[in-house]
Specification:
Helix content: 25-40%
Distance between the termini: 26 Å
Strand order of the largest sheet: 4-3-5-2-1-6-10-11-9
CATH architecture: 3-Layer(aba) Sandwich
CATH class: Alpha Beta
Number of helices: 8
CATH topology: Carbamate kinase
Order of helices and strands: EHEHHEEHEHEEEEHHEHE
């Protein structure tokens, strides 16, 4: 039995690059699809938000002269490209899945609504929610927080390349210590870069727990569903 019934899985666009310098690594994509299929077969209802940093990031574009609003719109389209790729990989793995977009772009994807997303989840479909919030100046972390709250997920799972939250960046500081659990207030007080402040505040105020774990190790997503303590849980007191 899975410890969560309905989840929102946030995936990093950068992680999709795998061993490449840009774009989508087909092997990493297939690994993700396999892990997601594995927990879907356990009966877990799965909504997914995926970033677009492997293709284009609006904020970095703005620093190079792009108009910020149009740069963010390009970033939203990058998330749609990644969502279509993941959707295709899931369907190739035998899963029923669909892409919903925050901006109208039929027939690429259906326009998002809470009711449509929840109905699909309850029918056993994996739902990929693309296009961020549909607005500039909001990250996909904020988009995933918003969607997790809207679809009434039990938890927001943040799949990263590190195995949890540390006192400092473990890739830069070998003395960094990992937290098994941490509160939102501690994240603020320690100035930890888990998600942007808007996303973190939304989860705090709506009592949405976040679980940060290493998604790049095959089998880890199933371990989280089975209740193994392999990451860091963020919650209110």
């Amino acid at each position: 039995m899975a410890v969560f019934n309905r989840i929102l899985l946030k995936l990093s666009g950068e992680s999709l690059m795998g061993s490449k310098q840009y774009g989508i690594d087909e092997n990493r994509l297939a690994e993700y699809a396999s892990q997601i299929a594995e927990i879907s077969q356990m009966g877990v209802q799965i909504a997914i938000v995926i970033g677009g940093g492997n293709i284009f990031r609006g904020l970095s574009g703005a620093s190079k002269g792009f108009d910020r609003v149009q740069g963010d719109q390009m970033g939203m389209l990058a998330t749609v490209i990644n969502s279509l790729a993941l959707n295709s990989a899931l369907q190739a793995a035998g899963m029923r899945s669909r892409v919903l977009t925050a901006i109208r772009m039929e027939p690429i994807g259906e326009y998002y609504s809470k009711q449509k997303a929840i109905a699909s989840l309850e029918q056993g479909e994996i739902v990929i929610l693309s296009g961020g919030t549909g607005n500039p100046f909001f990250t996909t972390d904020t988009g995933s927080s918003l969607r997790a709250i809207e679809v009434e997920a039990d938890v927001m799972l943040k799949g990263t390349r590190v195995d949890g939250i540390y006192t400092a960046d473990p890739e830069k500081d070998p003395t960094a210590v990992k937290f098994d659990e941490i509160t939102y207030d501690e994240i603020y007080n320690r100035n930890l870069k888990v998600m942007d402040l808007t996303a973190t505040t939304m989860c705090k105020e709506n009592n949405m727990p976040i679980y940060v774990f290493d998604m790049d190790t095959p089998g880890n997503l199933k371990k989280v569903m089975q209740g193994e303590k392999i990451g860091t849980l963020v919650k209110n007191k």
